[in-house]
Design a protein that fits this description.
The protein is mostly helical. It contains three helices and no strands. The protein starts with 7 loop residues before the first helix and ends with a helix. The mean pLDDT is 87.
């Protein structure tokens, strides 16, 4: 454990409490996310394909 992460038992408790709800992203939010990622898309794809 280090200073930037809570103890494992607290992370497990949070994950158990949070459940598995579906995330909802509006069209505007999706467009904003796509625009933010667009400049990085080629670099990410190259890295993924390189393994």
């Amino acid at each position: 454990m280090d200073g930037s992460h809570p103890p494992t038992h607290l992370r497990i408790a949070l994950a158990a409490h949070a459940g598995n709800g579906d995330a909802t992203v509006t069209a505007a939010e999706g467009a904003s996310i796509a625009a933010e990622l667009a400049p990085h898309r080629a670099r990410i794809a190259t890295g993924l394909l390189a393994g």
